[in-house]
Amino acid sequence: MPEHEFAVWAPRPDRVRLDLDGTLHPMVRSDDGWWRATVDAAPDARYGFVLGDDPKVLPDPRSPRQPEGVHERSQLWQPAADAWSDSEWAGRSIEGAVIYELHIGTFTPAGTLDAAIDKLDYLVDLGVDFVEVMPVNAFGGTHGWGYDGVLWYAVHEPYGGPDALIRFVDACHQRGLGVLIDAVFNHLGPSGNYLPEFGPYLSSGSNPWGESINIGDAGADQVRRYILDCALRWMRDFHADGLRLDAVHALVDTTAIHILEEMSAETDSLSADVGRPLSLIAESDLNDPRLITPRDQGGLGMTAQWDDDIHHAIHTAVSGERQGYYGDFGTLETLAETLRHGYFHAGTFSSFRQRRHGRPLDTATIPATRLLAYTLTHDQVGNRAIGDRPSQNLTTGQLAVKAALALGSPYTAMLFMGEEWASSSPFQFFSSHPEPDLARATAEGRKKEFASHGWDADEIPDPQDPATFERSKLDWDEVDDGDHGRLRAFYQSLIALRKAEPDLGDPWLDHLRIDYDEDARWFVIHRGSIAIVCTLGVNDVDVPVTGDAVLSWGTPEVGTDSTRMGGHSVTILKAPR
């Protein structure tokens, strides 16, 4: 058997031993808190670490594979020599692209990476450029959203493990699809989190999901390295084209060089090494343009960020919902303001936060393609009390209006799986914590949270009930059925038009012009020769714009001075040159 060096950073225990296939081996500590042992090991050997006098064998914090779950021994793993066939993949930029967010466990009936491969040709036909997979890191239980990961380096085994992820990414690249992986570095899950027994991975602070990660206190240097190496691993070892970074506002970094700036620099270096673009998309609710400002201009250098203001402005204008954080949104004026400037809250008072929020975006230097526009995300449906989608509450015409506003905008666009055919499946919050007390607390906490907002506790799905997970799976039989198929074809045409019309590729918000009538409920986005005309009310209206109709939802009557349209409809006009 070949020799293998096992290493683990564990500054807290006074003794660390390697358990290799049931046999204990001593490890030697260096001054930096790393323990090492070089022993003969099979390529697929099972191993773990025994800390101090506690006989329990703990998995490797940098485990490459967890075949029996996050509480058991790790396994050595390396990809097969012929695992990859994507050497011709040159990569692509996410800016201006169309991204498709999906959850592996509910994307197909089987809920595996291999099963997802069978749907990639559908995505290519739809016209998307990237798939963004919700977290695939190892977490406790068999199914869940993935944001409670505890072994960040390993691929969740029920999805197929690391070899299946290679097959999935390789298959995407063979079809010209980029792959983005959702990574969570702001907290650790409650099931299987043994990292604090090794070292100071957690800080004294907290966030809504638990204790914060230590990226600025004593011992933070090695924790930061743990995060950075994990981020690079997804892009280097699994050929991902970038990461979506979860809730970066919860990364409290008091050091002079923010960890996101450091990650940006190392990602750029890796990009140069592999010879293809690599992207970092941050989820942030700060509305801080420094996040997407290049490092050489004093920013953190993220490629792009999710923009919830755009979602809120579109959703409230179409649906009429105004509760919670939707309170400052809902008018066409607000929609226009948000689409023109990227952020609605830009140093303005937020009634939800009861303070000023955000900072203005310099639209002359930062292109709109650094912000993501979407009508739906896993958060915006899954964090609703019963996980209901807009398709369960709105007409197909209203869904078409939302799609046109997002895909017709100059922003990088993102869809959530099934959105394009108005999937009838909810996307509910589900988990499968194996610990009875944790399972009970999760279910009771979910009901208590929404009962405090006026919901009947009996209506709140139990996240631990397997039926909650099962009902959240997409029903692929709907795709071509009736209005489902008609809406999917409209999305497909919108995406194709977005790519075909040069004026729809202009990324500068200063070139954008918007007209609207609050009372008549019509809204027009002008982008060069293209006018995206939407009616948000139920009545027929005359909109003072004309041209050649190139795509419609509804039956417009285009006149010489105006276009007559029905309620909840869309017409995209092109002016003669």
Description:
The chain has 577 residues and is an alpha/beta fold. Among the domains are: 3-58, Immunoglobulin-like (Sandwich), CATH 2.60.40; 97-198 and 227-302, TIM Barrel (Alpha-Beta Barrel), CATH 3.20.20.80; 429-471, no CATH class; 512-574, Golgi alpha-mannosidase II (Immunoglobulin-like), CATH 2.60.40. Helix content is 25%, strand content 23%. The chain is built from 14 helices and 30 strands. The protein has an 8-stranded parallel β-barrel with strand order 9-10-13-16-17-18-21-22, surrounded by 4 helices. Strands 2, 3, 6, 7 and 8 form a 5-stranded antiparallel beta sheet that branches. Strands 23-24-25-30-27 form a 5-stranded antiparallel beta sheet. Strand 16, helix 7 and strand 17 (279-282) form a beta-alpha-beta unit. The chain starts with a strand and ends with a strand. The model has no long low-confidence stretch (mean pLDDT 96). It comes from Mycolicibacterium obuense. GO terms for molecular function: 4-alpha-D-(1->4)-alpha-D-glucanotrehalose trehalohydrolase activity. Keywords: Carbohydrate metabolism, Cytoplasm, Glycosidase, Hydrolase.
